[in-house]
């Protein structure tokens, strides 16, 4: 039999790091954060645009100079309101059309809003209509870049349509004057600025997705490795309890009652062919324990009589339930073989959120600490199984006092998942919760950083493209002009200092933030009180729409109420400046209301949107990413377990499976010496496989000793000699070196001498078997498994009844193989 367990380093070509990079790079399409950011921006864009269209449209009607034109204006604006309503409805309930048709209809309705708004300008007439149209179209082209973010061509086409609608309104309002080119360029710049801000936020969301994917890939590789290790342990424990025990007993003699052997061999085959690690749901442990087999498994041994005291039902996850059942079965087998009694007591009872199972006998007892590590009955089948599912098993025994084995499992100590992960994944729920929290924090940090960068970009471009033009063109209306210039320079300093802190350290220090907020509010007051009230929020007021973006940039990481408070202070300063010169008229109030909605309302909505992104979208993205990762992890575990099982079973089919099939169907007789020899060889190979998972300084020597112990159980005297300084030998090479020794020891009847010679360039393992059975050891070898890193050569020599076998491995000049 070849070694059945695949080494963890061979999970994927390229190793662990390559697996992580491959997973992170192979994900197609946007991640959870990017998808949710786009979806949230689209919904907020539709709601914001609809609010602006309705509110500014109503205020524009109020500000109209000629009330007789109101019905005609409403005939244009009401359809625009309805078009916004249709888009809002489509967000909640998809239209009963094909997706492509729905997109074309929504795009047409959005374009109709722009055209109808532009046509209302000449109908209403006056300054109020001009402000209303500029406000609605400007906000629409901004929000369109978010509504149609995943289709930038559609957003750009709507921006061009808005520019054309604004120009059409100007032409129809004043046929003798051509449209202001600066206003048209302003609309296109706003669209480009909005698109750029979206790209900045999306880039940070994508960076968060990449970072989360890399972290998730690392966790997934760890979970898959843990699952494979747990399944490997269960596989080795099952192999120990079934085929290894059966073949070892057959190899030890023929003066037995072999009536139990065919059924046992068939059961062993069934156990080896079953795929481990896929048990689902929960089981009643009480029912399982009532079905524990009690023998007989050996010569002249009667069944062990179990006195059971079970307080049931005991419903627990299937992974721990089956681990306890298999452990109890192995412990009962040990009572049958070693205790010297035919009675044992089995008790089970609930304990809090778990169970306790205890098996005790009044047999000869033993010292548990004296059992060699290579004996797997207790360490692997009993204790190892429970550790793999988050439980514990203890063995209490002393010579002459009997033995007590206790299994304990509690829900809080178990892995969180049901199904195959309940048995295989050694990842506690708290670790997954911490990972989820870390992902949410990562998404929040990246989205906040992106929002601050977008706000800074808006501040800089707005100030040095729009505000600079305004302050330069209206120097004569400022009283005094130097105050406005100083305010402009002060805002530029805030952007420079805050932007430097953001780009260098990722956050703005509290002292810098406090100084900057004071400077921004000072700028708001200076600009409000050095400009005549009738010009506030007009073309000469360069700071009214800019201050809010600076406040948002500085307070992006604060609750929205803090931002709203500072924004309210900015509006309050301008309102005080207006009311100090007298109460404005209704038309003037409507125009200022439009300006407040267009600027401060937009900024407040962005603040609310940012709060939603940080406190709703980020957790939702974390949950969605966690669900996606859990599905990927489950699929990987399932695929790797199935592949590992196929490799293991394929390794068994060459030698172990034919033996068990022959014994199970009566084709092979345990009375035949050749059959017993073959069984001894297979038992030795299995013991070597069990020793392969031991954490020891010299794995080669440890595995040789495991093979020697099997021969010693059969009455062979084995001596082991070691020469030279041990060094690392790849696991595949160890298999090739030891297998000829196992074959020779299995055929030896009296004495054998095993020698290991280490040199700087080679490792040589030799065995001399005296009184070998018919010299068959010279012709039997294990089938070749996976290729080794070097060439293992085997030389066999037979002289009379003695056999000498030497296996030699020459170390390669450079080896990158995994060594264990």
UniProtKB/TrEMBL annotation:
Transmembrane segments: 46-64, 70-91, 103-120, 184-201, 451-469, 481-502, 514-531, 537-555, 562-583
Keyword Transmembrane among record annotations: yes
A Gene Ontology BP annotation from the UniProt entry: phosphorelay signal transduction system
Cited InterPro entries: HATPase_C_sf, HATPase_dom, Sensor_HK_TwoCompSys
Pfam families: HATPase_c
Residue ranges annotated for the Histidine kinase/HSP90-like ATPase domain, each copy included: 328-410
One Gene Ontology MF term: kinase activity
Keywords noted in UniProt: Kinase, Membrane, Transferase, Transmembrane, Transmembrane helix, Two-component regulatory system
Name of the protein in question: Signal transduction histidine kinase
Originating organism: Amycolatopsis marina
